[in-house]
Specification:
- It is a single chain.
- This protein is mainly α.
- It has two domains: 33 residues; 74 residues, no CATH class.
- Helix content is 77%, strand content 0%.
- It contains seven helices and no strands.
- The radius of gyration is 16 Å and the shape is globular.
């Protein structure tokens, strides 16, 4: 498992570096990293997801739901992806379906928020 993680990190090293540089530069220049929020001064469908994941991992479930309740589906997706990729290949391939469901739930949440406005 560790060897496979190392192999993936070395394979995607440049992408990771670019992503980290993007996050640092955008945060320093704009105080934000979300391009939608920077360009349009509006929330994007994923706004609050990072906070929600943090709150979930620290056991603050009420705050997590308030930040972005669709993050729970993304957490399940990432756990399943990690297990399938690094621990044990699953017989069924739920990853593409879970990705579609998580994305759809994120956009449904966003549409519901927009409808309240």
């Amino acid at each position: 498992m560790i060897e496979k993680i190392k192999k993936d990190i070395s394979k995607y090293y440049y992408i990771l570096i670019v992503a980290i540089m993007y996050l640092i530069i955008m945060h320093l220049l704009f105080g934000q990293v979300c391009p939608v929020r920077i360009l349009f001064h509006a929330n994007c469908p994923g706004c609050g997801a990072t906070h929600a994941m943090y709150y979930t991992f620290t056991g603050q479930f009420k705050k997590a739901i308030e930040a972005n309740w669709s993050a729970f589906f993304w957490i399940i997706f990432f756990i399943a992806f990690f297990i399938d990729r690094y621990v044990h290949k699953l017989r069924i391939k739920p990853i593409p379906y879970m990705l579609i469901v998580s994305g759809a739930i994120t956009y449904i949440r966003y549409i519901l928020i927009l409808m309240k406005l």
